[in-house]
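User: Can you predict the 3D structure of Helix-turn-helix transcriptional regulator? Sequence below.
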Amino acid sequence: MQLTPRQLECLTRIAAGETSAEIAAALGLSKRTVDHYVTHACARLGVRNRAQAVAKAIRSRLIPGRTS
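Assistant: Sure. Here are the predicted structure tokens for Helix-turn-helix transcriptional regulator:
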């Protein structure tokens, strides 16, 4: 399961509690583009939603988990 750098960045920011709109503003993208990255990350990870995608990415050590 290979994710693109943008997909990983979006999932990392979602794990930190950011919304698609906040991620879009921070990265200079549209909200729709962020949602596109997340949707495709979900498909590649074989999950149904962003929460499952974040959980699987953390378990797979693709993104860091929260340390607080």
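The chain has a mean pLDDT of 95. DSSP finds four helices and no strands in the chain.
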